[in-house]
Automatic annotation (TrEMBL):
Residue ranges constituting the ABC transporter domain according to the UniProt record: 24-257
Signal peptide interval: none
One Gene Ontology molecular-function label: ATP binding
SMART domains xref list: AAA (SM00382)
Record keyword DNA repair present: no
Basic and acidic residues composition-biased segments: 352-361
Chain spans, region Disordered: 333-361
Polar residues composition bias: residue spans: 333-346
Name listed for the protein in its UniProt record: ATP-binding cassette domain-containing protein
Keywords assigned: ATP-binding, Nucleotide-binding, Transport
PROSITE patterns registered for this protein in UniProt: ABC_TRANSPORTER_2
Amino acid sequence: MLAIDVKDLRKQFQVQKNREGVKGALKDLFKREYNQITAVKDISFQIPKGEICGYIGENGAGKSTTIKMLTGILVPTAGHLKVNGYVPYQERESFVKGIGVVFGQRSQLWWDIGVIESFQLLRKVYRVPEAEFRQRLDELVERLQLGELLNRPVRKLSLGQRMRCELVASLLHNPSILFLDEPTIGLDIVVKTEIREFLKKINREHGTTILLTTHDLQDIEALCSRVIMLDDGRIIYDGGLDELKSRWSKGREIQFQFGEQPRLAELHVQTAGLEGVTWSIDNELTATMWLPHAVNVSDALARVVGGVSDIRDIKIMETNTDEIVREIYQSGSASKEATEKLSQWDTGAGDQEAKESKQNE
Ligand SMILES: Nc1ncnc2c1ncn2[C@@H]1O[C@H](COP(=O)(O)OP(=O)(O)OP(=O)(O)O)[C@@H](O)[C@H]1O
């Protein structure tokens, strides 16, 4: 069963042009001119129930615009979308009961009243029965250790405390889908880790589907098996994180620790003939071997282990996801298919007449 089903979804904004100078301003008064911005360009994807999916892309790629359409805040210019079986902007009242939303940069809590009062107000908005609300609140408060914060006004909370309260607020009505837009932005590593652990548990125990946008790839690594990558309003990758890493990383690093000082020339001798393998000395007792994917790791390892005595430790270094993703953003494509798709789009995507977008916000 699908939690989210998106087909050819598009969002265009009309932005007013400002002409220069006093003359320009006067002209603007009488005849406004507009530019069209296509923030989301006919994207399609499906998310099954219970999945945690990362939605990533550079600033301005169209992530928030997508989330706003998925949560019913914005009306799409074209395309189809179903979330939890509803068309979000058409069936808002029933629809919102099944979703939870956290925008890291914006609060859904009332600034000047106690946290618990905000929760009570949300209970009424979502029409959650009191007993169910109490039970859920107790569970969430215990999990996120919010006990002492409940009576404080939101404005007196630290960012980390507020984010934990935001998460509780989004889950009070037990939604089956949670949309998180930058939920860990600005938080320290301890709170980030706590929030990630909490989300994993919620997903595991309640089967909550989570769509997460973030610039912190550690969030993705910790939580998501799948990642959708957006660039300039188009999907350039949709698949597993591991696959992305193995397809895009150019090679691997293996670090050796020796009992005595390694000599570069001797190390090179061991891997002679393995094309592309390079060595660097890290410090007195460690050296790192870099090998391209074409070279078999066990072949290279066997040579070194067989040829150099007194190896104390061997570490296969993790592929650096940040670097890979940065590289993909720079090139604007994550696969050959995507590149081909992009060139098709370039020849025909821009000519559909723009419709004026309605905004519910
Ligand atoms: N209400 C709006 N009116 C006009 N243009 C908009 C509006 N909202 C977004 N845009 C434009 O649409 C594009 C996509 O913006 P969006 O906020 O969806 O990107 P994003 O991927 O969420 O970026 P960020 O990571 O910076 O939050 C940008 O060019 C942005 O300027």
